[in-house]
Design goal:
The chain contains 6 helices and no strands. By secondary structure, the chain is mainly α. It binds fe (ii) ion (2 copies).
């Protein structure tokens, strides 16, 4: 049976012709070009967020309650160790670039609610994925191919972390 009413309620936006991407759009989405010194600063921001992730996973793995979270609690301990490995890799890369690896720790997020903890962790991973994608492109632009490779290895693990959390949240 035909449903003519459906057409009337369709969003007017859908009737619009698809917008062509302009040069300005491409520029907006392109990774920001940086100097070597700026890249060192950005990598130190990434390092502070790796320390945050390490601390946050330790706290969440211990504080999460409920039998449905047993498997992911064990996984969060694994994540924590992998964030530690990322911090070591980033600190080495910052040193290779002539910078001083920082010791700042970005603010870890906690919650009394186990599901919220997983959402906080996923938010951190999605942020890391976006940052490392940009950082890989920036390393490429500066012809820092060793750094690019190290960042690619980190990115692969962050993508696994995000998938683990999405599975646990049944997203
Ligand atoms: Fe990491
Ligand atoms: Fe991660």
């Amino acid at each position: 049976m035909a449903k003519p009413a459906a057409k009337k309620t369709a969003s007017p936006a859908k009737a619009k012709a698809p917008r062509t991407r302009t040069a300005a759009d491409l520029e907006r989405h392109a990774p920001r070009k940086v100097t070597r010194e700026e890249l060192i600063d950005l990598l130190n921001d990434d390092l502070a967020k790796e320390f945050q992730a390490l601390v946050q996973y330790v706290q969440h793995a211990a504080a999460m309650t409920g039998p449905q979270y047993d498997a992911i609690k064990a996984e969060l301990v694994v994540h924590s160790n992998e964030e530690h490995a990322h911090a070591i890799s980033l600190a080495d890369q910052i040193d290779f670039l002539g910078g001083v690896p920082g010791v700042d720790v970005a603010q870890a997020l906690i919650s009394p609610d186990s599901k919220v903890m997983l959402e906080q962790d996923l938010e951190g991973e999605l942020d890391a994925i976006a940052r490392y994608r940009e950082r890989i492109a920036q390393a490429e632009m500066l012809q820092e191919y060793g750094l690019r490779r190290a960042l690619e290895d980190i990115l692969i693990i962050e993508e696994e972390h995000a998938r683990d959390l999405q599975d646990a949240l049944s997203l």
